[in-house]
TrEMBL record:
This is GAE domain-containing protein. InterPro entries: Clathrin_a/b/g-adaptin_app_Ig, Clathrin_app_Ig-like_sf, GAE_dom. Residues 20-135 form the GAE domain. It comes from the Eukaryota. It comes from Hemiselmis tepida. Signal peptide: none annotated. The lineage of its organism: Eukaryota, Cryptophyceae, Cryptomonadales, Hemiselmidaceae, Hemiselmis. One of its GO terms (cellular component) is Golgi apparatus.
Length: 138
């Protein structure tokens, strides 16, 4: 049938077309709010890393006017896309936001500060978190 083991196709077919994968990072987890980062790079030598941030609410209350601002050191540039929503529903609601992190010089560490703000029960909650435990090979 031409599709056996000796069909001439390399066993690794397709792997060169997939982006590099990295483990999911829990960037923040406090008070029922969790932020997960998933990463993608086109190739290992690229200075740019695409980050998809997923925000999760495990609280019994919805979180309104949810926003996450990001600060990075001067050796990094960050471009942040719009959030998928500004309200995190109660009991498992999620939203996503994309970011592109670019190193201005290779070999410098990835790190960022998250500034998270939302309203819960009419009160404004503001939190900051430093994220420094990025996968080493990013």
């Amino acid at each position: 049938d031409g599709w056996g083991n000796d069909d001439g196709w390399d066993e690794e077919f397709g792997s060169e077309f997939e982006g590099l994968s990295y483990p999911t990072l829990t960037a923040y987890e406090r008070g029922g709010v969790k932020v997960l980062f998933d990463f993608e790079k086109s190739d290992a030598s690229s200075p740019t890393t695409a980050v998809m941030a997923t925000f999760k609410n495990s609280l019994p209350d919805p979180l309104y006017d949810f926003s996450c601002k990001v600060a990075v050191p001067s050796h990094l540039d960050v471009v942040i896309g719009p959030p998928s929503t500004s309200t995190l529903r109660s009991g498992g609601g999620t939203m996503t936001q994309s970011m592109n992190l670019t190193r201005n010089s290779m070999g410098t560490p990835l790190k960022m500060r998250l500034m998270i703000e939302y309203k819960r029960g009419g009160k404004v909650v503001r939190e900051t978190a430093d994220v420094t435990d990025f996968p080493a090979d990013l």
